[in-house]
Amino acid sequence: MRRSAIAIGGVAVLAVVLVLGYLLLRGGGDTIPTTTTSAGAPVVTSPYDLTEAGDDFDMSGVGEAKFASLLLETPDGVTSYMVAAGQESFSQLARAVAEATPMGAPVPATAESLTFVMPDRVTVTFVLDRANGLIGRDGTAWRIGEDLGSLVSAVTEQAAGTLE
Question: Of 115, 134, 144, 164, which shows the fewest CB atoms inside 10 Å?
Fold first, then answer.
C-alpha cells in the first residue's frame, strides 16, 4: 500500500509539473479562446463620400463646382459658410481662384480654408491668407487678383442676409 501511495503522489507531482511546463511554454500571454467570434468592421463606401483632388487638378475648373465652403475664424470661433454655384458671390470667388497667379512664397499656417466641391464629389481645398490675398494648396501659393477679403465678405454677407 505504501508503494501505491508513493506512486500516486509521484504521478500527481509529475502531472502538475507537466501542466505548468505546458502553460509556461505557451507563453501565458495568449488570449483565452472563447466561443464568441467577432468579425472585423466591413468596409462601407457611400455615394456621399468625398475625396480631395490630386496635385494635378486644373484650377480653371473650380467654376464647375456645385458649391464652395468657407471655414473662417470669427470672434465666436470657427464658422463655416456655404455658397452655391449660380450665386454671384460664388461666380466671383471661383473666377478669382481660377485666374490666381502662382507665387514663390508659401502660405502661412492658418485655420481658414476654402473648399470647392465638384460634381463628382471631389473636393479642392485651399488655405486662405486674407491679409495678404493668398490661397495655398499642396505647398504652392497663389495671389488672388481681386481683393480676397472683399470676395470672402460677399459670401459672409450673403449668408447673413439669408438668415434674416
Answer: 164
87: pLDDT strictly greater than 90 = yes
How are beta strands 77-84 and 101-103 bridged, if at all?
Answer: unpaired
The gap between the terminal CA atoms of the chain, to the nearest Å, is: 102
The region of weakest confidence among 48-57, 67-76, 144-153 is 48-57
Taking only Cα atoms into account, the Rg of the chain, rounded to an integer number of angstroms, comes to: 32
What would the DSSP string read from start to end of 59-111? GGGGGG-SEEEEEEEETTEEEEEEEETTSHHHHHHHHHHHTPEEESSPPPP-S
> Do the beta carbons of residue 83 and residue 158 sit within 8 Å?
yes
User: What are phi and psi for residue 141, nearest 5 degrees?
Assistant: -115, 145
pLDDT tens for 12-52 read 555 555 555 555 566 555 554 444 455 566 667 677 777 77
Cα 93 to Cα 17, 31, 114, distances in angstroms: 79, 58, 10
d(CA 128, CA 141): 10
Segments making up each domain of the chain, as ranges: 54-163
pLDDT (tens digit per residue) in 89-124: 999 999 999 999 988 777 778 889 999 999 988 899
- Contact criterion met (CB below 8 Å) for 116 and 46: no
